[in-house]
Amino acid sequence: MIKFVDLKRQYTSIREEIDDAISSVIAGTAFIGGKYVQSFAGEFAKYIGVKHCITCGNGTDAIEIALKSLGIGNGDEVIVPTHTWISTSEAVTLVGAKPVFSDTLSYYYTINPHEIEKHITPATRAIIPVHLFGLPADMDPITLLAKKHKLFVLEDCAQAHGAKIDGKLAGTFGDIATFSFYPSKNLGAFGDAGCIVTNNDELAEKATLIANHGQLIKHEHKIEGRNSRLDGIQGAILTAKLKHLNDWNERRIVNAKIYFEYLKDIQQVRTPASIDGFTHVYYVYCIKALERDKLRQYLNSKGIETAIHYPKMLPMLDAYKHIEQSPDEFKMSYEYQPFILSLPMYPELTEEEIKYICDSIKEFYSK
Ligand SMILES: *Cc1c(COP(=O)(O)O)cnc(C)c1O
Q: Ligand 1, atom 6: nearest CA belongs to which residue?
């Protein structure tokens, strides 16, 4: 049985570090905020290479808080990709603004920079590129376009901890960026967790206020905020795990290379795109496969778990049946959607397992 995600293997490999981290928090009763959270925020800001990291409850809150910090709300429009996890568009709606969907690219699965401009109206305030599956969106044309139209860029880095373009880390291209530390993410907590990063002092202060009841100093509420805080146990766990992130990402990249070698000659399968200068960190290893659903069933019968990220493009969901956009606007993502399939991918996956998965795929098509 090859699980789609196997978090137990990772825990087992660093059990002592994690158990020590948890015990320290309990012994120090630093349950919410406190020194373990502070210390993680500092370490993560250093890792990304930004001035500020504001921790919060989860990656969805992070996007919502970042949008509010940018002053986005009622009457505003924000451009988001058709192909992403719903948090990206949900957060836009949560602040009172309107998500406007823009098509994504086959093989890359990130927003198509050349499709964005046609969605810009006088109400557009921001673009949220998502570095989907661990591959950075093409940030050069996006930031140029944003500059031209005076729009903010908020990077959704929930799937891209450590991803880079020409050595520059995802999270450092826009005005503000958000991360999720959901357990299965490349850097994952043992529960919900998230953060906002930025080099802008003013945005950092606003985000800090919003995430913690509008107070920088206890009981000095400058505004009404909300409660979205990171707890000490997650902070300590994330600090321990951050030390391994580069190593884990390297192993994901090695695993992707092994997949590529075993899959490259199968006509019915296309491996994900790699781009010169872009460091893909493979949160998800997404292939395009003919007869996808039958293949998925076959792999399941061979003890191989797979997933689909995601079964429907966002504009096709009931949640968005009210949008006025035409399906013609999302041609490419709608076209590739029936073929995408995510194969098991984690640092601890062995070459033997990858070979077994690829052999099973070969077997399916040769029948
Ligand atoms: C996981 C994820 C989020 C949200 O993170 P949570 O911590 O689950 O709220 C946002 N955007 C994308 C693209 C994600 O994959």
A: 59
Sheet containing strand 168-169, edge to edge, reads 168-169, 164-165, 278-279
Q: The domain 245-366 belongs to what CATH superfamily?
A: Aspartate Aminotransferase, domain 1 (3.90.1150.10)
Low-confidence residues of the chain: pLDDT under 70: none
- pTM > 0.70: yes
In the chain, residues under CATH classification 3.40.640.10 are 7-102+110-242
Query: Ligand 1 within 6 A of 88 CB?
Result: yes
Check whether the bond before 365 is cis (ω within 30° of 0). no
Question: Which pLDDT tens digit goes with each residue over 261-311?
Answer: 999 999 999 999 989 999 999 999 999 999 999 999 999 999 999 999 999
Neighbours of 76 (CB within 10 A): 18
Residue 96 CA, distance from chain mean position: 23
Rounded to an integer, what distance in angstroms lies between the CA atom of residue 319 and that of residue 338? 20
180 lines ligand 1 (CB under 6 A): yes
CATH 3.40.640.10 fits 7-102+110-242, yes or no: yes
Of the residues 85, 111, 313, which should be mutated to test ligand 1's pocket, given the most ligand atoms within 8 Å of the CB? Answer: 85
DSSP strand pairing (77-81 vs 124-127): parallel
